[in-house]
Design brief:
globular, alpha/beta, binds D-malate, 10-stranded mixed β-sheet, single chain, 10 strands, 312 residues
Length: 312
């Protein structure tokens, strides 16, 4: 036959709406990035893209669901750095990020911010570090569960200060932000895609950004190093994946569409407003994401072990 069944499916692709699983709550940082990209990809592909939020267990529930979805190009996963940290944080993850997915491409790298409710006592990062050392477990710290970026950042912070805070897990930092705004939680470390607007409006306190330089969207927020926290740099990279076994022609089409979406002016501008930027086109590729995932998985295994964290 001139065409295999696969080839025909790839030629017609996409013939129906595509679902992108976001492994965290709606309204949070991963959801925000996904919806911006999905909108532009949808225009490029001429098909509707539905964002499905499957929160829980630090992003591992949504990833597990995507890993076992049909490999037909109609269920995708947009996940972040958690794809590389979860294998070190869980004893038995129900999927292997490196073998159960076909990488499509990198999407963006998002800085983090250390933030607190607006009436939290410490004024500067220096004050905050002293306050944490002094009050430890009396401080409540929101995160999106083991495997989340917010959890990773908090783990590194507690390790750097050699102290514990009381962790309060959510299904995403979207709902955690609601509680931070309401003053029910003391602090969190969260991506600029979720914190920039609230920081700019003065609704929460910001102590530091986790980038080597200050960022344009938040010029008044010092870097962690400026505030006395050395070697505290963290960039939350995001990638788009299909289940392993997806036709390479479909993966190729999705990667091309991702590149088109990231080059869209409105996407770039929305990202910039939130303190981030799309990756260059040559990073929105299967190879670049596979490489990033491999090197980051190795790195975080070492860091987690060095921090003395026992996988759960
Ligand atoms: C989210 O989308 O809620 C976040 O990415 C959670 C996190 O990883 O901290």
């Amino acid at each position: 036959a001139a065409f295999s069944a696969h080839g025909a499916a790839a030629q017609d692709y996409p013939a129906q709406p595509i679902t992108i699983i976001v492994p965290f709550s709606a309204g949070g940082p991963t959801d925000t990035v996904t919806r911006l990209v999905a909108q532009a990809m949808s225009e490029d592909l001429g098909q509707q893209i539905v964002v499905q939020n499957v929160g829980g267990a630090g992003g591992t529930l949504g990833a597990a669901q995507a890993a076992t979805a049909a490999a037909d190009g109609y269920t995708l996963l947009l996940h972040h750095i958690g794809m590389s940290t979860a294998p070190a944080l869980y004893q038995s993850l129900p999927y292997d990020p490196q073998t159960d997915f076909a990488p499509i491409g990198l999407v963006t790298e998002v800085p983090m911010t250390i933030v607190a409710r607006r009436d939290f006592e410490p004024e500067t990062l220096e004050d905050l570090l002293a306050h944490i050392r002094e009050n430890g477990e009396n401080i409540t710290y929101a995160n999106a569960g083991v495997g989340a970026a917010s959890q990773l950042c908090g783990m590194l912070l507690m390790d750097a200060l050699d102290t514990r805070m009381t962790e309060v897990p959510y299904q995403g930092t979207g709902p955690a932000m609601t509680d931070l705004l309401g003053g029910q939680i003391d602090m969190m470390c969260d991506q600029t895609t979720n914190t920039t607007t609230q920081i700019q409006a003065g609704e929460i306190k910001a102590y530091a950004v986790t980038t080597p330089e200050r960022i344009d969207a938040l010029p008044d927020v010092p870097t962690a190093a400026e505030g006395g926290l050395e070697n505290f740099e963290l960039a939350i990279w995001h990638g788009l994946y299909a289940p392993v076994g997806t036709d390479p022609a479909i993966v190729e089409r999705l990667s091309a569409s991702l590149q088109t979406a990231l080059a869209t002016e409105t996407v770039a501008q929305s990202f910039a407003d939130l303190g981030t930027a799309p990756v260059p086109a040559d990073q929105a590729t299967p190879d670049a994401l596979a490489e990033k995932l491999a090197t980051q998985t190795e790195l975080w295994a070492e860091v987690v072990a060095a921090a003395g964290v026992t996988p759960q």
